[in-house]
Design a protein that fits this description.
The protein contains 12 helices and 142 strands. By secondary structure, the protein is mainly β. The longest helix has 33 residues, at 2-34. It is flat and about 185 Å long.
Length: 2007
């Protein structure tokens, strides 16, 4: 039983060991295979090195890393311990971030909130540490800052500091200083402020240069900002300057802080530094800065833009690391010199990079990592590997031979006192180093003695391992019966054998084979059991180190073994808990102890029969040495130099002998020169003795003890103290005043003592204080006291102290005496006294006594006896004499120079006192204004008597005119030294009163006489308000705003500039101009178009007035509306999951192309075979970037495309990617046929599965017997290419069942339907093939199967489309019955029948052949077109092959072809984004799976649009004094969007080129041309561009005068020469144009006269009676208010030239006939001066109409009511409805005969021809009533009723090619300006009785065409003359003046009729509109808009009703 247990135990142990080895091998193999995929941790987001935060805000410190596998984040403290959560104070998030929540002040914990943290990231590859993270929480505390008080001598530079409490100083920055006058001195973005006098240094000090007395009246407060909370506050108290007058010449002296220590500055690279040199002297010193180079030499600092010197301060901007160093400031004047050093340290952020970042090195090869670092300073470099410190401190780490344990993460750390940085690198093992692996292991066996035994192990590895054998832990070697062999097999395996011949029982035991290489080892252990008696083999002595463990297995042979036990001292083990004995004979002892465990152990093996065997084991327990701790003195405290010391090193434990007990100093052997003795006492003690301790003995002393077991050491530190001792002790000294004094005081000690000097505060040797301020020129140099030019006040007791912290230190008291003559500290001073008050003059002389004093006044000795007001008194002092001179009552005459002379034995000295009797100043006079502006005024005055006291200040008092001096005045303080000053912060355009008051220290004067001023206008001082920006669409923003506050206008607002730009851009704004709306409270707006989609824009608005623009508003940012994404998702990948699911993933499109916020993605997918068919596609939406598509077809190739969508719509789909679903088991074969072939054979045929679900690899045919009895089914595998199978060996009388299954790589599919049949000798014909629909490609070869069986062999016949087949080379029947068709065409498509027939029967199948070819060409036609798009209509013919799509090809003329693809089912398609007004060629092609078909016919068409159209001038131009506003929207875009305008101008008299205003004016809104001169004529040239082309037009306009009035035109007259050249350019230059005009006019008159006579005679004789001219009668006349005219008044209708009138040289040529009215012909009579008919007010001077008096557009006008009775025929229509050539002259037709009663004055000739808009030819007859040449009288230039232009015009324009465009759109020939001097005779006034109120209305005017229809209220007089545009309701007098260059009714003379004109008419003309001076720009703009609305019925050719055409 025991043997069995032992065997089982051995088997178990062997199995466990084998499994462990196998697992290790497997793990190592897996590690090797995955090594390429793994990566060590690398920080993605490393925490910063310093984190400061407020307890009110908290902080979050991120820490993220990457690696494979994903690293774990752990936070550590600085000491390496892990950080845990502290509720409410500290938390580690799952993301790796370390969070410090806000906390209360009382919850502050030092170990949490002020500690160093480290972020650790680790994975299986390695571990890395972050840089040190210094966390400091700042608890909010109450604090105040204070301004410093600085004492300064006048004329020097002062520095005022901001005193900040120390606990908050690290977090407060001084950002500005504020003085009591309201001035702010703020640091700029470069960290400094400078305005000449005041400088704010980067460190926060306020530096004031050249201090004056008035600077002392101000207070200065500093403003600080908390860096953590952002809180800003002013100092609680203000800083002040205490300014003193200089008391004689003074050498430069530095502030006390600087005299000894100097300065130190530290900051980051790129910061600004201010190095100060605080010095005072008189005269003020000269400052020079030097920098030390090479440690000792100094060089002057080279000043430039970066290094500037402001006074004594050196400013260094954008500091560099090389700026670091020691700087010396030297300040000197005529008296002396002083200097101060400043050490500047410029730091740069640390950064480190390890190269290479990843290094793969072969085993045993060297590796090197280099740490490149930047920044300054660098204090140390350290390395870590996998988070553990390495000893290397250099920048390069080298590994000579890489071993397996070297693999991992290396880190380089760079540190200084403030910062740290790290970088990471990974070391990988290269090649393929496989550890040894046992591939074959020997088995445990149980054998009988005698036979041979062979144990074998095989191992693999790289490098090849070596196999070592052991038996019971002893190496097996070759012996007589034992042979060990090893060789390498063919496959690289190492094979090792242990062969034992004639095996004995003693050969049994535990065998171990171990495969070893340099990269690892593998072990297998097994037991070989040989039958025999128990035998315990001998065991070697075991040596065990005390404290360790011991494991020993008893080497037992023999089999079977019942038990193995261990004994010690005849006791069976275990006997304590440290001992364990296992059944296999293993003894384990933990924590071995010598006294208990050393001795002899016995192993006893016993079998079941009681036979035993024993073996002894000697165990020796060895103890390593241990040293008793020791130290110098009392716990390592420093020892005094010279003392004796002894320390003992004792080894209290350890086995003897000790090889050595020795001492080391700093790790090295003791030097014999050190005077140290060591004595070894006994075997365990060594004593070190130092008789006299010296400083060089300081250091570490180590005792080292070694024995055979090991070595140990212990170290103690010796610190030494040496008290100071005198080298030179100071003694009493005496010096002559003014000499240089030096007193030595030197000492020695360890550490080196510091020497300090102090001076007694009083006269005795006590109360010693620092030397600060004791005397100028006093300093300490290397312990010596140096006094330059020693003054008397330096006399006294001095103390020199030397101390190094050891003992009481040294001190010496000395007395320094200064021998001097009498001396006055102040040589001269002013003393003031107020008039009428007593005054006391004092002089104090110091020096050796006795001292005599004498007084003098103005150089004469003063005797107080004659004048009782003077008294002299003397007082003896300890160091001199004090003399007082008293004056009882001061008078003005007492102002004099008093001199005090002191004399003693050593000399004399004197001082002067200037007594000034002061009184208040007198009134200032001569106050006058030098300059003024909108907000300031500059005043000058003369200074009056100051009252013997300098005027300290003047007060300028001012108030607004409506205020009073008591309550409404303001004051401006002016220094008393000035007599000129400015008053600021006034309001523009406001009346002010100003006066002046003087003040001195005594009092103030009376106020001066006041002056009155009115401030000027200014640009607006405030921005517009209520600015809002809203998106309208993807490309448009709407900006709305309101005017600035009324008090900020500073004048009338003219308009606004709206600027916009990309919010992320630093480019300037693009501005557009918007007019000002004067409606109260009206909101202005502007549409900004052509913007980018979903882009943030910044918008500003600024108002401008006549002076200029005001400030910009704050930026308002807004996004345009979202659009569709411009790009498709990227990095699309698909992965097949199963046979019916696919995973699709992608990444988002670029953020810049999203055009909005992506809401999600749409996945469009479908089978690739039908991808063209939209119906087969599916769409799935998802918000994520991954989706799994389910329910797909098995083993199908899918196409899929992804698009992103936003609120703006779907974006661009991606390019389709393809994925194939996995295979699955197939479906059943479609059909099965069993065809009898013979009596024992059947032919089984089948069709492949309709759903193969993969690649069919084979078929399985199943058969079984069903009759007479069922049998088990048998199967047969058939290759996949075979679909028939012949089954033989069947029996005729049995019935068989057959079925078939298909196989794929996945498995077997479903069975087909079964077919049953029985073999038979009678075999009718049967076709085994199946009828199919066969699809063939055009021009391919196709085979139609028809396999038949039967006995006898059947005959095969084919029918093609019902006809018997006629074979040919292209169609022929193959031997197997199949039909072969070559080069298939469309005609071959159809039904093919195959018939098999024999004598026993027949069978037939029908195939359908479908031929697929490229598609037929589609048809294309035009469906419509716009300016930028063309819509085409498409139709595709049907075809056998499914249509996949169409391609539309298009190009513009001379362009390149472009193409776009559309779905096949689209019948119409629109090509968008085309050029406007451009011709295009378009054709289409179709395509399917076969290819692309032929192209359609080419469609030639074009987009709509034409060039821009020129607007009328009065709609386009609006003028003002210094600018002109262009209404760009008035241009006709021609159907194509405007691109831009080019605007140019020049003065009309200017002969040189045009001035370019802008060549890229945006087409929206208005555009203002600025900087024009008032009252000046200009020519304007505007070129409008669109896609079709450009149109250029020229205009003329005159700016308004300064008073807002218009100017007259420049008179020019070329007698029509320019017009004729325009009409007849072929005329030669020598032709007399006047003669041509006269001749043509005569011909026209003759022709017209003859025509009139002929027509009149013809009508009188032959015409209908109703149409003949009558001798007398009444004629109805419309618009005459029922009045009629008798024939006796007919003469009044002609032209009667009144006295002094001149007839017009060119009369009108139009006429109106009755036939035209009767026949309804529309030949109206036009009036160019009348407003558009849209006003609804009919006018008599237009077409003769019925009743209503309007213009008719139907066939004929309605018959008036009063004509229905007798004269209805008068208005009848001719029977044929066509007007004839015989037309009567209608009653009251007006003829203007050329030259009739005309005085042929050449100067009154033709004024030119006004042509229709857009034409350069003469107008056709009947299109205008030509009244331009009516009889006229001269007109004055100031008249207004003849102006032609509407409100706001006054312009003449021209178009490209010459000619000008007038206000009504009429084109005038070039080089012509109208200069009319004639007026319509109908306008002759009451001088000739035509306008008399007592005459009938019919006589009010000589011409019907001149009658007004505007009623005059409460007046029986006839209506006023015909309206001109200036007389219209929207007219103002300004327009005639503005339009003089295009007005045919204007003159520079005043006519008689104008003088005599009815006042009522003149009044009506003037009240219709206000003068421009009283009309705002907005009102003028409204009048223009009304005028534009009234011209709705303008005629297309450019004429409007009442246009006057001059011929």
């Amino acid at each position: 039983m025991g043997h069995l247990k032992l065997e089982i135990l051995c088997l178990v142990v062997g199995s466990v060991v084998a499994l462990l080895a196998l697992n290790i091998d497997s793990a190592l193999a897996n590690t090797g295979s995955n090594a390429d995929e793994e990566g060590g941790p690398v920080f993605v987001k490393e925490p910063p090195s310093k984190v400061d935060f407020s307890n009110s805000t908290g902080a979050e410190i991120p820490c993220q890393s990457r690696g494979t596998p994903q690293p774990e984040i752990i936070w550590l403290r600085g000491d390496g311990t892990a950080v845990g959560d502290v509720p409410g104070l500290r938390q580690v998030l799952a993301s790796g971030a370390l969070v410090f929540p806000p906390f209360r002040a009382e919850d502050y914990r030092q170990e949490v909130h002020s500690a160093t943290y480290i972020c650790l990231a680790r994975n299986s590859i390695g571990t890395i540490h972050s840089r040190d993270v210094h966390v400091r929480a700042v608890v909010t505390q109450v604090y105040d800052t204070h301004g410093d008080q600085e004492y300064i001598i006048k004329g020097n530079s002062a520095t005022i500091r901001c005193k900040i409490p120390s606990f908050i100083a690290d977090y407060l920055d001084v950002v500005s200083w504020h003085d009591s006058d309201g001035n702010v001195y703020k640091l700029d973005n470069r960290g400094v402020f400078e305005d000449g006098k005041f400088v704010v240094l980067p460190s926060g000090e306020l530096h004031i240069k050249d201090v004056r007395p008035e600077d002392g009246f101000k207070e200065y407060r500093c403003q600080t900002k908390h860096r953590l909370t952002g809180e800003t506050r002013l100092s609680a108290s203000a800083g002040k300057l205490v300014i003193t007058d200089p008391q004689g010449s003074t050498a430069p002296r530095l502030s006390g802080d600087t005299q000894i220590s100097g300065f130190a500055r530290m900051g980051m690279k790129g910061s600004t530094f201010g190095l100060i040199c605080p010095s005072q002297s008189f005269p003020p010193g000269i400052f020079k800065w030097y920098k030390f180079t090479d440690g000792s030499s100094r060089q002057p600092v080279q000043l430039d833009d970066r290094l500037k010197q402001l006074g004594g301060t050196l400013i260094i901007r954008e500091a560099k690391v090389e700026d670091s160093g020691k700087y010396l400031c030297v300040v000197s004047n005529s008296v002396g010199e002083e200097s101060v050093e400043t050490v500047l340290t410029v730091t740069a952020p640390l950064a480190a990079t390890v190269e290479p970042a990843v290094q793969t090195v072969d085993f045993g090869r060297p590796a090197t990592f280099t740490c490149h670092y930047q920044g300054s300073p660098v204090k140390n470099i350290t390395w870590m590997k996998n988070g553990k410190r390495l000893p290397q401190t250099e920048a390069v780490i080298r590994i000579d031979a890489v071993r397996r344990e070297d693999r991992g993460m290396f880190q380089c750390f760079v540190r200084n006192d403030q910062d740290s940085a790290q970088s990471t690198a990974e070391l990988k093992l290269g090649g393929r180093f496989d550890p040894p692996r046992l591939t074959f292991k020997f088995r445990e066996e149980v054998l009988q003695p005698g036979p041979k035994v062979s144990l074998k192990c095989k191992a693999t590895g790289n490098p090849s391992p070596e196999i070592v054998w052991e038996l019971d832990s002893k190496k097996v070697t070759n012996a007589d019966r034992v042979q060990v062999g090893q060789f390498v097999g063919e496959n690289g395996e190492v094979v090792s054998h242990v062969n034992i011949t004639n095996v004995h029982s003693n050969d049994g035991g535990v065998y171990r084979c171990t495969a070893i290489s340099k990269v690892g080892s593998a072990t297998h252990t097994g037991r070989l059991n040989i039958h025999g008696l128990p035998h315990v083999k001998s065991m070697d002595k075991a040596q065990v180190v005390a404290g360790s463990g011991m494991v020993k297995t008893c080497p037992v042979a023999g089999y079977p073994i019942d038990a193995v036990i261990w004994e010690k001292d005849n006791r069976v083990l275990p006997i304590n808990r440290r001992q364990s004995v296992f059944p296999n004979g293993t003894l384990v002892i933990d924590n071995v102890q010598r006294n208990m465990d050393q001795g002899t152990y016995t192993c006893v093996a016993r079998n079941a029969q009681g036979y035993t065997s024993r073996g002894n084991l000697e165990v020796q327990v060895m103890v390593p040495p241990r040293i008793v701790p020791f130290f110098f003195g009392n716990g390592d405290e420093p020892l005094m130099a010279g003392s004796h010391v002894t320390i003992t090193c004792t080894v209290d434990e350890g086995d003897l002998p000790f090889e050595n007990i020795r001492w080391a100093f700093h790790g090295k052997e003791l030097s014999s020169q050190m005077g140290i003795e060591t004595v070894k006492i006994g075997k365990r003690t060594n004593i070190l003795t130092i008789e006299s301790i010296a400083p060089f003995h300081k250091g570490e002393y180590s005792c080292i003890a070694t024995n055979a077991v090991g070595s140990t050491n212990y170290t103690a530190v010796l610190n030494i103290r040496v008290p100071p001792r005198w080298i030179v002790e100071p003694t009493d000294r005496a010096f002559a005043q003014g000499s240089d004094a030096k007193i030595e005081c030197k000492s020695d000690g360890f550490p080196k003592p510091s020497v300090a000097w102090k001076k007694a505060a009083g006269d005795g040797p006590m109360d010693y204080r620092d030397l600060k301020g004791s005397a100028p020129g006093m300093r300490v140099e290397d312990g010596n006291l140096v006094i330059s030019a020693i003054p008397k006040q330096a006399e006294g007791y001095y103390l020199c102290e030397a101390n190094n912290g050891i003992g009481a230190g040294l001190s010496a008291v000395i007395y320094i005496s200064v021998q001097a003559p009498p001396q006055f500290e102040i040589k001269f001073r002013n003393q003031t006294a107020r008039k009428g008050e007593p005054a006391v003059l004092q002089c104090e002389a110091k020096g050796e006594k006795p001292i005599g004093i004498l007084w003098s006044r103005d150089g004469k000795r003063l005797d107080p006896k004659p004048d009782p007001r003077y008294t002299i008194r003397e007082e003896i002092l300890s160091n001199g004499v004090l003399s007082d001179l008293s004056v009882k009552r001061s008078e003005r005459t007492d102002s004099a120079l008093f001199t005090c002379v002191a004399t003693n034995a050593f000399g004399s000295d004197e001082t002067s006192l200037n007594l000034i009797v002061q009184e208040p100043p007198e009134v200032p006079f001569g106050l006058k204004v030098l300059d003024k502006s909108g907000r300031s005024v500059q005043l000058q005055w003369s200074e009056s008597f100051s009252g013997n006291s300098p005027i300290t200040r003047f007060y300028i008092e001012y108030k607004m005119s409506k205020s009073d001096w008591n309550s409404g005045k303001d004051r401006v303080l002016v220094p008393g030294s000035q007599t000129m000053a400015s008053v600021y912060n006034l309001r523009p355009a406001t009346t002010y009163h100003l006066r002046l008051v003087a003040e001195n220290e005594v009092g103030t004067s009376e106020a001066s006489q006041s002056v009155t001023i009115i401030t000027a206008e200014e640009a607006p001082s405030g921005p517009p308000t209520g600015i809002a920006v809203e998106p309208v669409d993807q490309h448009t923003l709407k900006v709305t705003w309101k005017p600035p506050l009324r008090e900020e206008w500073n004048g009338d607002i003219m308009g606004y500039y709206v600027g916009y730009k990309l919010a992320s851009s630093d480019k300037p704004y693009l501005f557009e101009t918007v007019e000002f709306s004067r409606e109260v409270g009206k909101e202005h707006h502007l549409m900004i178009s052509n913007l980018k989609t979903y882009t943030e824009y910044s918008v500003v608005v600024q108002a401008f007035n006549r002076i200029g623009p005001g400030p910009m508003s704050k930026e308002v940012a807004q996004h345009t509306a979202e659009g569709k994404p411009d790009h498709a998702p990227q990095d699309i990948s698909c992965t097949t999951l199963t046979s019916q699911s696919i995973r699709v993933s992608w990444t988002s499109p670029p953020l810049a192309s999203a055009n909005g916020v992506i809401k999600g993605y749409k996945v469009i997918f479908g089978p690739a075979s039908s991808w063209y068919d939209e119906k087969t596609k599916e769409i799935k939406a998802t918000p994520s970037s991954e989706i799994i598509l389910h329910g797909l077809k098995k083993y199908t190739n899918y196409n899929m495309t992804i698009l992103a969508y936003t609120n703006g719509g779907d974006g661009i789909p991606s390019t389709a990617v393809s994925c194939h679903t996995e295979q699955d088991v197939p479906g059943p074969p479609t059909a099965v046929k069993a065809s009898v072939m013979s009596g024992d054979a059947i032919l089984l045929s089948w069709q492949p599965p309709s759903q193969p679900n993969g690649v069919v690899t084979q078929y399985t045919v199943y058969q079984r017997t069903v009759e007479p009895k069922e049998s088990e089914a048998t199967s047969q595998k058939i290759p996949s290419f075979q679909t028939t199978y012949e089954i033989s060996g069947l029996k005729r009388k049995e019935r068989y069942e057959f079925w078939v299954t298909a196989h794929t790589a996945i498995g077997e599919g479903q069975p087909s339907k079964s077919a049953t049949t029985s073999p038979s000798n009678k075999v009718p014909a049967k076709i085994a093939s199946f009828a199919e629909k066969i699809v063939a490609t055009h021009r391919d070869e196709v085979k139609l199967p028809c396999q038949a069986v039967g006995v006898p062999a059947p005959e095969i016949k084919w029918k093609v489309k019902g006809q018997m087949l006629t074979q040919s080379n292209r169609l022929r029947v193959l031997p197997d019955g199949s039909l072969l068709i070559k080069e298939v065409t469309r005609k071959d498509a159809g039904d093919y029948a195959c018939k098999a027939e024999n004598s026993n029967g027949h069978d037939t199948i029908m195939h359908t052949l479908v031929v697929q070819a490229p598609p037929q060409p589609p048809s294309i036609s035009l469906a419509g077109a716009t300016g930028t798009a063309i819509t085409v209509r498409l139709k595709s013919p049907s075809d056998s092959a499914p249509l996949h799509g169409l391609t539309i090809h298009y190009k513009q003329d001379f362009g390149e072809w472009e193409a776009t693809q559309i779905p096949p089912n689209m019948s119409e398609y629109t090509l968008e984004g085309l050029n406007c007004g451009t011709r295009y060629q378009i054709y289409a092609t179709s395509y399917n799976s076969i290819g692309t078909g032929e192209a359609s016919d080419i469609l030639n068409t074009r987009t709509k649009g034409q060039k821009p159209g020129v607007p009328s001038a009065h709609k386009f131009i609006e003028v003002s004094q210094n600018s002109v506003t262009l209404h760009l929207s008035s241009w006709d875009d021609g159907g194509c969007p405007m691109l831009y305008f080019v605007v140019e101008y020049k003065a009309r008299h200017q002969s040189d080129g045009w001035t370019m205003v802008s060549n890229s004016v945006k087409p929206s809104g208005n555009y203002v041309v600025l900087d024009l001169s008032p009252a000046t004529w200009y020519q304007l040239r505007v070129t409008a561009h669109n896609n079709v082309g450009f149109t250029q037009a020229e205009f003329e306009f005159a700016t308004l005068t300064l008073n807002g009035n218009q100017v007259g035109p420049a008179r020019t007259n070329d007698n029509g020469r320019g017009l004729l050249l325009e009409v007849f350019p072929w005329l030669p230059e020598w032709v007399d144009y006047n003669m041509i005009v006269a001749g043509c006019a005569m011909i026209v008159i003759i022709v017209v006269g003859l025509a009139v006579i002929c027509i009149a005679v013809s009508r009188r004789n032959r015409g209908p009676e109703s149409f003949r001219l009558r001798d007398e009668g009444l004629y109805a006349q419309p618009d005459m208010r029922g009045m009629t005219l008798k024939r006796e008044f007919r003469d009044e209708l002609g032209y009667i030239a009144p006295p002094n009138r001149k007839l017009p040289p060119v009369p009108g040529s139009n006429y109106s006939t009755c036939d035209r009215h009767k026949k309804g012909m529309n030949h109206p009579t036009w009036n160019g001066r009348r407003p558009a008919a849209a006003t609804g007010v009919p006018h008599t001077y237009e077409e003769l109409a019925n009743g209503g008096g309007g213009i008719y557009y139907d066939d004929h006008p309605p018959v008036p009511p009063h004509a229905h009775s007798d004269d209805s025929s008068l208005y009848s229509k001719p029977p044929n409805g066509v007007p004839g050539q015989d037309e009567e002259i209608c009653p009251y037709a007006t003829f203007h005969l050329l030259g009739f009663r005309e005085e042929m004055d050449p100067s009154k000739g033709s004024n030119g021809l006004t042509l229709p808009h857009g034409s350069t030819t003469l107008p056709p007859p009947g299109h205008g009533h030509h009244r331009g040449g009516s009889q006229s009288a001269p007109r004055g230039s100031n008249t207004t009723r003849y102006g032609r232009g509407p409100v706001g015009s006054g312009v003449v324009s021209s178009v490209a090619g010459g000619g000008t465009v007038g206000p009504n759109g009429i084109i005038n020939p070039p080089n012509h300006v109208f200069s009319p001097e004639y007026d319509d005779p109908a306008n002759i006034e009451d001088e000739y009785g035509y306008n008399s109120p007592n005459r009938r209305g019919s006589l009010g005017r000589r011409s019907m065409g001149s009658m007004r229809t505007v009623p005059i209220p409460e007046s029986p007089s006839p209506p006023p003359p015909p309206p001109r545009p200036s007389d219209s309701p929207n007219s103002t007098p300004s327009h005639s003046q503005m339009n003089q260059s295009n007005d045919s009714k204007e003159s520079n003379e005043l006519s008689e009729a104008e003088c005599d004109r009815d006042p009522l008419i003149r009044n009506r003309n003037s009240v219709s509109g206000g003068a421009p001076g009283n009309m705002s720009t907005e009102e003028m703009r409204r009048l223009i808009e009304n005028r534009n609305q009234n011209e709705a019925h303008s005629i297309p050719n450019g004429l409007t009703p009442y246009d006057t055409v001059n011929v």
